[in-house]
Known about the structure:
By secondary structure, the chain is mostly helical. Helix content is 67%, strand content 0%. It has nine helices and no strands. α1 packs across α4 (51-76) and α4 (51-76) packs parallel to α7 (119-142).
Amino acid sequence: MGRKQLWDQAEVLASAMRLFRRRGYLGSSLRDIEEATGLHPGSLYRVFQSKDGLFCAALDAYNDQVVQGRVRAHLLEPADPVAGIRSFFTSTFETGLDPDPGCLLTNSAVESFAVPQAAEGVRRGLETIESGFAEALTRARALGLLSADLDVEGSAAHLLALYQGLLVLVRAGTPLTKLHTITDGAMASIGPEKEGQR
């Protein structure tokens, strides 16, 4: 009969998410992982098989909890989808964190050459965001907030690219004024905002 697992996998993944978000895959040693999770290597390897396995599991959890949660809160649920798109951008840098660790999904995309196993998780997270943009743009067009001629698919892809670039700049410590300017440019690319949406 196997020994009962005495630790909570969700808590371990939450700790791993924070570590990888802050230090990245390459910057996180096995000792760092052990200290962050409180588990010995044997326990980690028994469940996740490797550092790569833990990283992929942490990225999956981040997609499910953080990425999908943000998309839902900013892009799917707001009554004003254009204002929601703006808040999706600004909420990445109006966090009060200094330094801001950025986004695990974006950081993982940058480091994906080192963890090819994480490619599927990166792809899934980016598709979730792009689909969220497309849904918000479709609703905004139907509500008359954006032009009826707006190319939803192209605009969603463009917003995704701008959003990912913004997150890299957030991680690099770019001044807030410049981040707001980039956000203004992203919003201008889909059409003029009405009063109260900014």
